[in-house]
Amino acid sequence: MEQIGVSRDDHPRDDHPEDDHPEDDHPADDHPATRKHKAKDEFIRIVNLRKSYLMNGVKVEVLKGINLSIRKGEFFGIIGFSGAGKSTLARCINRLETPDSGKILISGVDILKLSKTDLRLARRNLGMIFQTFNLFEAKTAYKNISYPLEISGVSKTNIRKRVLDAAELVGLSDKLNAYPGGLSGGEKQRVGIARALVNRPDVLLSDEATSALDPQTTLQILELLKDINRTTGITILMITHELDAIKYSCDRMAVLEDGVIIESGSVDDILGNAHSYTGRLFAKVFFEFKKSVALSDGAGI
Amino acid sequence: MSLLDTPLWDVLVGSFAGDVWERILPAVIETLYMTLLASSITLIFGLILGVVLTVANPNGLIPLKGLYTGSGWIINCLRSLPQMVMIILMIPVARLFFGKSYGTNACIIAIAASCIPMYARIVESSLLEIAKGKIEAAKSVGSTNFQIVFRIMLPETFPSLIRGFMVAVIAIISMTALAGMFGAGGVGDIAVRFGYQRFQHDVLFAAVYVLIVLVQFVQFIGNFTSRQILKRRNLV
Fold first, then answer.
1. What is the pTM of this model?
2. Looking at residues A207-222, what average pLDDT do you find?
3. A227 — pLDDT class (breaks 50, 70, 90)
4. How close are the terminal C-alpha atoms of chain A, in Å?
5. Is residue B38 part of a domain?
6. Considering the domain boundaries, does residue B1 fall inside one?
7. If you average pLDDT over residues B160-171, what whole number do you get?
8. Which domains does chain A have, with CATH numbers?
9. Run of H or E residues at A209
10. Do A120 and B155 touch (CB under 8 A)?
11. Interface test with A, best of B140, B144, B152, B160 (most A CBs within 10 A)
């Protein structure tokens, strides 16, 4: 069912009648197509992940048993409305949040079972970029990018080379001496991406990384991420509420609603075979798409 | 010269006379000495205590409820004592350390006991204001807690730590003046002995000038450096 060669047109296909495939409701790893690939290229596997918070003494379950599997080198999108738990899910993967139960396997290693020291080392292999960029304002762009290397004991000459490489990759070589306070949103996110990539991680987690940017900058950043994904083979997990962003960049996607993954599969499949929930999102996208056509005469998403 | 028998203007003019300043100069040096030493001690221990409070906070890097509530309780106790009561309370402690309960060194203990908790609270509130995302970003690249504190939290909040420290230094200056009443010497001692006990208001005025200039200078230095740093970081 993967990548059935449908051109990525801007309209969901109509050729699938409204047949509610039972598979559509299943998490990715129960999907026959996914199962077939599992042995070969399954890279991140999330099994029955649960997480709840105490809110005013009441236990609120945010993730209600997430099952997901992501392949090596793919650009995977997770979409959901706010409150669906998508940010929590991303933050569980590098254990910024500690889940209640479940497993997160990255190349077979359960992140949730790592000791503190091992977790620290594992995090160096899991780059993360944020909606609010979270740059260190006391450091120049250069120092922001070099920080991950400095704390992992890389030699000075090596640091310089790798920082310059990373800066070149994100197209920021001329702004390295600037402080984040003097950079635009897009430039800040480029520094964030360079900082996340400088340790040469296998995975890049993007937690709403384009949500604070204007549409044009969003496109540039998505283009950059796609490029990095293609050239370095890094696995990107993108959390977003913008379906446009996923349509634009992802190979496969999952739809998160109320702490459960209600659909997952290739972007083309899900777009063509809309579950009612996804339909709601599409309606929004269509609306925005119409606006963007009017604005940019079809040059946009 | 006293306001009891001399017009205000003459006392004001008289307060700039050479002999007044000759008398007050050693006291100024004592005040500067006390302020400098007490400020350094306050800076070091206040920072340590403030960092401990922040790190041990229930939402902090290493939540340690016992340490947090314990040190918070001690700080509140020390802060609830008025400065004067603290000076009296520390007299036996000073005797234990220095063998005498008066003098500039003895009063530094009381000043430290009173101002360290204050600066610790200022440091804590500065450090708590740092955006949570920055700490998460530091975590996400594999920082140790030590690295987060010393390479992220303290540099990020540096301008606000400076401004807070100036608040503490000014409190220290005011406390050295108070300590003058209890045998610590300094400008406060001059003000009490000459201005209060002998009605030599020209000397009192001179002491007031010194304190005003000192506080203004401290505040200026604090504002200036913190502003320079913010400017360099493009944040103002």
1. 0.82
2. 91
3. very high
4. 25
5. yes
6. no
7. 95
8. 1-6+30-125+205-301 (3.40.50.300), 134-200 (no CATH)
9. none
10. no
11. B140
